[in-house]
Automatic annotation (TrEMBL):
Keywords: ATP-binding, Kinase, Membrane, Nucleotide-binding, Phosphoprotein, Transferase, Transmembrane, Transmembrane helix, Two-component regulatory system
Residues passing through the membrane, by range: 20-37
GO function terms (MF aspect): ATP binding
Protein name: histidine kinase
Domain Histidine kinase: 208-455
Keyword Cytoplasm: no
Length: 463
């Protein structure tokens, strides 16, 4: 064997030896049977031909691939893998839950798994990476890898329309040819939004809770001190203080529940829901649960619109939206009035514009969260109209701020915590929907939310 012989030559030589030996033994056995008269000459010749053919086939199948077709050894120093190795893992990558993309020359996306299609909103046709992922640090890392540099890890954050924190692993792949563009880039996106938000949520919760709980706790401490002092034997004062203490305690309970709910919503805001829910049925259930509260003020709640409206959403969170909006409508409507809740299924851009402009041109209107209306997307819309005094234009931009309450809505201990509309906003953001408010002083306020009624899915056959 010469010095230049490939490593497979020795193995091929041994297989050739084994094949010849087995064939010779088989032919010898046939000759013995022929001369002993056990078989005839035609049968012996046929058997010899069959054995020779099977031996040749075995030799071909057992031989290794040619050296040129073997994948190149990975460069351990740069942690590189070959395009051949990547292609053998295609079936596995198809089912990975995190986004994976293969980028070729010119920064064009050659393949993307379903998770990448959904996360980046890719169409059925491949396009430039820069059109789908506008992150200079990532694009610079990809360009560097395509030039033959080593792999990189890049982190980036976005805050609009949805906050997200992503770590991108950019891995170089050696192409099968040695042309002008021998390298490709494999991108693996790891979403770290949940962990980042968990860290921030702990700090926000402590800051918000300590700020909002300070006043009721101070009131409770003052009442307890009074009851232990000169009001110990004053039955009338004791009953009055105990009622106030109960109200303050209930408000603190509502506040803590709302803070926890807001924290849970913010944790999952970057992950869109995938469930199927009937928005109309859920709204009717919410109305039934709040009817006793409305009757205590002489208010009736009427449901109008479509009997069924299927949406892509989390039923518990959608129930929380309807509950917050209807509770606010009851709270700020005048006694002995009427609240209207209506649901419209499968609406588009024109219907949304019409339904969210129901109070006329003189009314104040604000789009808190705008839905994506491109690509013929359809939505179901829920509107809740109260019978209150309305909200002035200057207050509309701040309605979804934490703990913000319009002047005149802060007096009683049973008033809201100022977190309800903030919770609604974050739930709508998670559902990739829309949130609108319009109000006209003296004629009430209408809150409208729209939820996607269909979900675009990545085309089959990609990565």
């Amino acid at each position: 064997m010469s010095k230049d012989s490939p490593p497979e030559s020795e193995g091929r030589r041994l297989r050739r030896r084994d094949t010849i030996a087995l064939t010779a033994i088989a032919i010898a056995v046939l000759l013995i049977l022929l001369f002993s008269g056990a078989i005839s000459l035609p049968v012996a010749l046929t058997a010899v031909g069959a054995i020779a053919a099977m031996s040749f086939i075995y030799y071909l199948l057992a031989s290794p691939a040619s050296p040129d077709s073997r994948p190149a050894e990975p460069d351990q120093g740069e942690n590189r893998i070959t395009a051949n190795e990547a292609s053998t893992s295609g079936a596995m990558l198809e089912n990975l839950p995190f986004p994976v993309l293969l980028v070729g020359s010119g920064g064009r996306i050659e393949r993307a798994n379903p998770a990448a299609h959904e996360y980046l909103g890719l169409g059925s046709e491949s396009g430039l990476l820069s059109a789908s992922l506008r992150q200079p640090k990532v694009l610079e890392a990809v360009s560097s890898v395509l030039r033959g540099d080593g792999g990189k890890i890049v982190e980036y954050s976005t805050f609009a329309p949805i906050e997200s924190h992503v770590r991108v692993h950019v891995i170089p792949l050696k192409s099968g040819d040695n042309g002008a563009f021998p390298w490709r880039a494999l991108l693996v996106l790891a979403d770290e939004t949940a962990s980042k938000r968990a860290e921030r949520m702990r700090g926000d919760f402590l800051a918000n809770a300590s700020h909002e709980l300070r006043t009721p706790l101070a009131s409770l401490a003052g009442f307890i001190e009074t009851l232990k002092g000169h009001a110990r034997e004053d039955i009338e004062a004791r009953d009055k203080f105990l009622n106030i203490m109960q109200d303050q305690t209930e408000r603190m309970g509502r506040l803590i529940n709302d803070l926890l709910s807001l924290g849970r919503v913010e944790m999952d805001e970057h992950v869109p829901p995938s469930g199927d829910t009937d928005l109309s049925g859920m709204t009717q259930d919410t109305i039934d649960s709040l009817t006793p509260l409305a009757k205590s003020k002489g208010i009736t709640i009427d449901f109008e619109g479509d009997a069924e409206a299927r949406v892509v959403g989390d039923r518990d969170q959608l129930f929380e939206i309807a509950q917050n909006l209807i509770e606010n409508a009851i709270k700020y409507s005048n006694p002995n009035t009427r609240i209207v809740c209506d649901v419209h299924a499968n609406v588009g851009r024109e219907e949304i514009d019409r339904l969210t402009n129901s109070l006329g041109r003189e009314a104040g209107r604000l789009t808190i969260t705008s839905p994506a209306l491109t690509g013929g997307r359809r939505y179901a819309i829920l509107r809740v109209r109260d019978a209150g005094s309305g909200i002035e234009r200057r207050h509309l931009p701040r309605l979804t701020e934490r703990f913000y309450r319009v002047d005149g809505q802060k007096s009683g201990p049973k008033e809201g915590t100022g977190l309800g509309l903030a919770i609604v906003k974050h739930i709508i953001s998670r559902h990739r929907g829309g949130f609108f408010v319009e109000s006209r002083p003296g004629e009430g306020t209408v809150f409208s939310v729209c939820i996607p009624s269909q979900k675009a899915r990545p085309s089959s056959g990609d990565f």
